[in-house]
Structure formats: structure tokens, C-alpha cells
């Protein structure tokens, strides 16, 4: 992976994004059903460019990956790119794992280097559009992204903090197939006007059961540090997009069975889902 200096970041990302995402469009076919007007969008001849925001463990990966399958655009999670890098045993991966395992953010340069490499690989495979998950996480990253391309929609997932911590502690990954599961069973009763919340565990199939691992950064101490850093560095990113008018706030009402249909409704995509299911 090439590490880019700040001076080199922008031109490289501009080139990659403009080359990779100027081709055919599913935005046109979805446009009537999009929840927001494409923000300042003049060129409709390109695919969806969406971003997921939200606290660590809120479920960005789950919903971004479902939407990616539904809409046929790549789901690009910077956390996955980081973990791929960590799985190689290079001096860089050792350096990165120290930062990640303390719950800290990697530098903008490193993350944009990883993202550029991923975009380049996608371009070679003819990918178009993206659903970004875990990027941007700082105002600097949001500004760089804004300089190089337009973001149509930013989905901001929200969940109460005590549930987020429990969900992170329950996260498991299958070391063989890479599938994401959750063993946490959340059942919090509503009180003093605050609604309760129920989330069933997302258990693995029997083949994966004995191969489950927990991320090294999913300990209670590190989770709390990640949330603290989110509030300092990433909450301003919510405001960045809110002020541009393309932020969709979505309070998760429960687990996937309750939340997925409501999210599709909020995105005016429930029709699209039915058509896909009927066609399958
Ligand atoms: N955009 C980014 N900027 C800086 N660091 C990042 C970024 N995306 C991922 N990382 C690093 O990778 C780690 C794991 O990312 P991710 O899987 O998205 O975490 P989470 O589940 O906490 O949202 C982060 O804690 C951080 O160290």
C-alpha cells in the first residue's frame, strides 16, 4: 500500500473517484424513490454515492451491506480495509494495530491511502458508485471527500449508548468465512417515557460456531474510548452534513427485523425491496 502525503492525497483521490464513478447509473432508476433531492447534483449520469455515519457498533456495516446488495453498489468499509491490513504481518500492520487496539483513529493519510488502493482495485473490476461505511470520520476527511466528489445522501444511525456497548461486546466474526454475528441479547424495558428496546442475537450457522473470534478492539475499555473519540472527532461530521442538508437521521427501533423495513421506508426503497424479492 502506498502511503500518501497530504499534498498527494487530493489529486490521487480526485483521479480515482472521477474515473471510477463516472459510469452508468442506477441513481436514475431510483431517483423518484430517493428520500432527498440529490444535493446540488447536476450530473445524474452516475451511480449512488452514499455515506453511513454512526457510533462504533451501531450497525453501519449491517445496514450498509444490506443496501449494497439491494442496490448493487459496492459497500466500502474502512474498518474492513484496516483489518485486512492488520492481518498481514508487516511493520506497518504492527504500528496500525497499536493505534486501533487503543480505540484511536488512524491518520487521515493512512486511511485515504487504504481507501485509494481499494478504489483502484474496484475501478479495475468496473465498479460504480459506493456506500461508504466508517469514512469520513473527521472533518478533514469530510472536506477531502467533498472536494473530490458529491455525496448524495448521508444516513446517520442512532442508538442509545448503553445498547451500543452491549452490542459491541456481543460482536463475533467467523474466522473462516468472515461473517459478522452478534451474541448479545438486548431487552431493555422502557421507563419514564423512554422507549424500551429489544434486539435478538444474530447467531451464526452451526458451521461457523466453533470459529468465532472477537475483535481485539471490542473490549469494554476500548469500546468506551472509541465512543469518546467518536463524540470528539466524528460528531462534528454529522453537523457538517446536516448543514449541507443531506443528512438522514435514523433512530434504530430495534434489531434487524424491526429496523430494516423501517429504514427502507425512510429511504423510499420499500417498493424496490419487494421488486427484488419478487424477481429472486
Ligand atoms: N475513517 C477512519 N479514520 C481513521 N481511522 C479509521 C477510519 N476507519 C476505520 N478506522 C480505524 O479502524 C478501526 C476499526 O474501524 P471500524 O470497524 O469502522 O470500527 P467501529 O466498529 O468502531 O465503527 C477504528 O477504530 C479506527 O482505528
TrEMBL record:
What reaction(s) does this enzyme catalyze? Answer: AMP + ATP = 2 ADP
Swiss-Prot/TrEMBL keywords: Kinase, Nucleotide-binding, Transferase
What are its E.C. numbers?
2.7.4.3
In terms of domain of life, where is this protein from? Eukaryota
Source organism of this protein record: Kingdonia uniflora
Q: Which family does it belong to?
A: Belongs to the adenylate kinase family.
Presence of the UniProt keyword Metal-binding in the record: no
UniProt-listed PROSITE patterns: ADENYLATE_KINASE
What's the protein called, per UniProt?
adenylate kinase
Supply the CDD domains for this chain.
ADK (cd01428)
Does the keyword field hold Transferase? yes
The Gene Ontology terms for molecular function here are: AMP kinase activity; ATP binding
